[in-house]
Amino acid sequence: MSIKSYGYMRNFLDNSDVDYIESFDFFESDWIKTGMKEDRLHYRHFFNERTQKWLFYTSLNLQRRFGLSREVPNDIQVQIGSQWWCLRRRTVESIMEFIKRRRDVVNFFKTTWIPDETFFQTLVRHLIPDNQIRTRTLTFLVFSDYGMPAAFYNDHYDFLIEQDYLFARKISSGAHELKARLGELYSSAQTDFNVSMQGKSLYQFLTQRGRVGQRYARRFWETEGSIGRDRMLYLVVCKKWHVAKRFVNQFGPHIDGPLLEYIFNETYENIPDLGGILSSEEKKSRHRRSLVRMLFEYYKTDRLLLWLDPGDFDILQDFCSYIAVTRVLEIICLMDDDYILGHAKRVNLISDTTPAEAISALLPSIRNELYHQSERIIDAGFDNFFRITEQGNLKKNSDQIKLFCELDEETATAIMEQDWLFAD
To answer: Can you give the pTM of this predicted structure?
Structure first.
């Protein structure tokens, strides 16, 4: 359904003389996540894969067996993208003229698999200059972590009209109030909308809330992994990264080992790639035991200090189960509305154009999420766990740093007496 008024749509399209269509290189992009890729084009598909499975796969396997593959037309660079697009009239006319001239291209795509994701995407990119194409769709849709498109209900009205799109899918068949309101909106005179591009990240954030715990069993290659029995791993956990860095700058030299700031969240250029394990956050997190073991070996040390974000609870939990001795220091900071707003912008939940009403509704959820991250660490009951707080008294905080770093009382007190450590 439309999520803007007719007047807004007309003005939006009149003010941008471009085509809106996703078009990514078929062979080079990763738009296709699973299933067939090249075979969509190189073999002829005459049957419906959903309703004629046996015929579909029998035909495909016979072509593979007898080498009946074909080549893509040599002057066409095949593109792929969403089947939801919006083209200018003259672009459609150019496509119609091309179809009349190039029946070979039409015949080729007739027997490709899922041609509505490739045919127009390819022809638009072939016929229209790049600077007249916006590689995006004007239809807002998000997918769950199960790969299914999200359905929108009556209480999604405000959420939908704030998105920087003209249409949305899928609207629930039972969302009668939502459909009525969107229908009224389309025919209304409203042309002023506060729009943002935070819809997909906001949806992901909200749907993941509450899914706390270990969702999957340990990976088989990690069940016996260890960073070493005689090694000491120090972990500093803090949501405000700049505060954590200040603290470690003060007591880090007493650790007598390398200090690595948020290595699971940031890119390091002064460390070798260690076999490619540092190439992405996903890979670092997946092979965290191997990564830490290699860091001990690379620095030729038996002591190592790492920063962690409280959101990386699974990493923290895994480290604390090692045979090696692990010490954890959590630094708790006060978080006012300005900090939470900044955090929401950094993680792309809101933008400068997000309406104030939406921000006010979202702030309590983000605050509760940050509070829950800290409570989860306390409830885990880790051994060798220490905690300092911005509101804590000097004696208590000094004792915690003293025990964590094995400092003398004078040094620990001198560190905590510096009132700028928690400053924003």
So the answer is: 0.55
